[in-house]
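Holo prediction. Input below; ligand is arginine.
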Amino acid sequence: MSRKAEGPSQKMWGGRFGEGTAASVEAFSASIHYDSRLYKYDIAGSKAHATMLHSQGLLTKDELQAVVGGLSDIEKEIDEGQFVFRPELEDVHMNIEKALIERIGPTGARLHSGRSRNDQVALDLKMYVRDQCDLLSDLLNGTRRAFVVLARRYLGHIMPGYTHLQRAQPVQIAHHMLAYYEIFGRDCQRMADCRKRLNLSPLGCAAMAGSGLPLDREMTASLLGFDGVTANSMDTAGDRDFAIEFLSVCAMIQLHLSRLSEELVLWSSQEFAFISIADRFCTGSSIMPQKKNPDIPELVRGKSGRVVGNLISLLTQVKGLPFTYNRDLQESQEPLYDTADTLSASLSVITELLGNITFQTENMAKAANSGCMTATDLADYLVLKKVPFREAHGIVGKAVVYCLENNKELAELSIEELTGFSEKIDKNVYAVLDVEGSVNSRTTTGGTGLARVEEAVAAAEKNLGII
Ligand code: ARG
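Structure of the complex:
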């Protein structure tokens, strides 16, 4: 049974209510335990709004000074952990406004003129997401930098490239590292797009229809670093597209981190033995003394579940919502914070881990020299000797079966054995059967030939300002 508060409502919106709110309703609807993290944005937004109210003749100079001073004091108190947030005041907006009124008196009650919590929360969230876009872009560039450092360090070393997780063609380790540099580069661009699209101020849309007071929306927008103002108050009051777009960019990045993590887990296994991860980045088993486990990449891979889940959560919240503000939108906040926190922690730890891995280049080279991985090169060799590619593919397929049956590599076959498959083959074939020769022949743009990869490493270093 819900407790009914004694007497009339004490709420800021309590005027039309004959009784206080049930305790269960207060507990269920409060968001202060998570939206308190918006306080800096809320205060910056309120200061800009007050400045604009003053310039429009809706606050005197003294009133503006009192509001701004009071808000600064409140911000300091919150910074220092002295401020007590009250759940009965629901959210960060009303906690701060109430504190202002208690501090500076009736002048504080003028601040909310021409403003609703609907445009206020949209403003705070946009400013939060904007900052997170910047933070995450910086972290992403840190991750990209770690890959470029690895690419430079291992330039010239060869590993097997895989398709279907089967050895496919030999590649430069550096080429693989730069593949990650590229993928996270696209993610940076997505973040920048998301930031650009969201950067229009909602302030002044008020509840959903705009305001009858003479507000200057452009002024608050420019004070708060927006590129302009949103065009339609109804759209703005119910818009969480920016949050969904941000969560979808984050989900994409976390998926990319998950794919990277999967490779790190595989490569650090005894079966692959391609990398070793420094002990301080691994954990042990409570029962098996010999174990050294790659928990960090496993956790990053696992966290992709919650990050994708947070995106689905927002998509589902918005589906079927009638236009403008509905309280459902409050539910957009926790997934948003969880994703931003999870992704920034994942990026930070993965970047650190990348600085703590060693490639076991001998094992990688050995793996690259097995599995008949220069078969495509032999087919290309025949193509250059005017054999149609499909025919060449068949000839080389037979040579591969012969190798498997005789436990040999293509490069180990004698010239007699090779000419048995096609008389077009002559002694110079060994140049293309050699793994290094194979890698370095791939000089198409974006290919793994040493010259190309050297150029790509240098371009990436220049791009990130490494040299
Ligand atoms: N805490 C609310 C939220 O996050 C603020 C907006 C409340 N608006 C309203 N009309 N009840 O959505």
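The first strand starts at residue 158 and ends at 163. That is the main takeaway for now.
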